[in-house]
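My main concern about presentation is that the manuscript never shows what a single data entry looks like. An entry of this sort, consisting of the sequence and the corresponding backbone structure tokens, reads as follows:
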Amino acid sequence: MNEAARQQLDAIYAENGVLEPKGVLQDARREKSPLHAYFEWDDKKAANAYRLTQARELIASYEIVMGDERVRGYLWRPSANSFVKTEDAIKSVTLWREVFTELQREVEVLIARNERLAQHAPSRAKRVFDKETATMRRSAKRIGAASG
């Protein structure tokens, strides 16, 4: 993102006290807006991209019951750029390792983001961040141990 776009987002926030997607889109509709180039304005292409987003959300909302617990019905498989049925993933060591590696990566991203935020937090909030990070690390360690 370029500096002009950053400044525009900050200006929208300053004007409204919040930054909402509808406000960003409203600003970006102006051709002279620094945000305009970040959007697809060809309605046919934009509609297709939006429908793909809806399809991903639909797939992600699919849940199944395993034992006494509700879990995702499909899991993301990065190498195939697609989803795989959870039942199939747990039956295949190869599929499960790939799916599990992606889940571990997501956890590590969350931990790293939390740690970066904690560096800038006031001391009282930093204690909360540190406690949450420690909890996430313990969980990640348990998950890693369970997969091995």
Q: What stands out?
A: Residues 40-147 form one domain.
